[in-house]
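Title: Request for sanity check on Branched-chain amino acid ABC transporter permease prediction

Description:
We are preparing a figure and want to confirm that the structure record we downloaded matches what your pipeline produces today. Could someone re-run it with the sequence below and paste the raw structure tokens into this thread? We only need the token string, no images.
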Amino acid sequence: MSQLLNRKSAVVLLIVAAILFPFVFNNEYYLHILSLAFIWSIGVYGLNIIGGYTGQLSLAHAGFFAIGAYSLGVLTVKVGLGFWLSFLLSIIITTFIGFLVGLIALRTKEHFFAIYTLCVGYIIYLIIYKWEAVTEGVRGLIGIPAPTPIGPITFDTPVSQYYLMLFFLIVVIFLFKRIVNSLIGRTYVAIRNSEELAQTIGIQTMKQKLISFVLSTFFAGIAGGLYAAFIRFIGPDISYINVTFDMLMYLLVGGIGTLSGPLVGTLLVVGVSQYLQFLQDYRMIIFGPILVILIIFYPTGIVGGIQNWMANRVKKAKMSLTKKVEAAAAKEEK
């Protein structure tokens, strides 16, 4: 009970700290970086649900992120629809395309699935790059509108945009937590641990993997739409494979298959990258070895390493208590 209260108290404290951050550090640069980190975190949560919990490495995640971004951009700039309707439609479009891709991609397994999704991601990049009539090709889409006001609430300042991204991040984390702690989430873990064993106990693995893949594209669509609205200019580079590898790096650093890993990893890597910005291209000389060492010694990421350390402490405490009880019982017998 006390552990549950402490955990809830920590979550409430973090949310309050995030809400108060603009008042304590009224710096537009910090707000811009954190807003971007929140957007990337949402995308990484999508990658975590298919890769961390279901055990399927999707390398097309940046492609679905770009579909969400370009869907919003095209619907608002070229079609002329309102922002929030376009945002909703961009998520639906991304999720539907994810469903179609998943129907074929999930017929493959392990590294074949990764290779297939890598090819899908590159095809999405080529379509965006070459379809100039819709995407403007290499020039990119410019003039994407900011989120329109909701009643008296406007989103035309860095602070208001920061709170909007924070709101969507909290909603995504809440949904993610409900999913992974449900029977569906346990089903995903069973498939990750052994797909053959999951089939023997009656789990429809193909159906569950498809749902997981669609959910990952759903989160990617949200992140892509928010990114387009926040940056207000998008180019084909957001769909390239290096964006997927960046999100995968955030996930590995934070902790793959954990609840808070995507947020911790994204905030940490983005923060360190910005801190080393003055080194320009040479920053990877410092950041690269640190990342390699972290993955070698903490293969489950920072959050996973902390969880393992805490579990070992509890285990040792229980063993120590058991020994004391056995020793006391032995003395009484004498």
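Thanks, this matches our download. Residues 1-6 have pLDDT under 50 and may be disordered.
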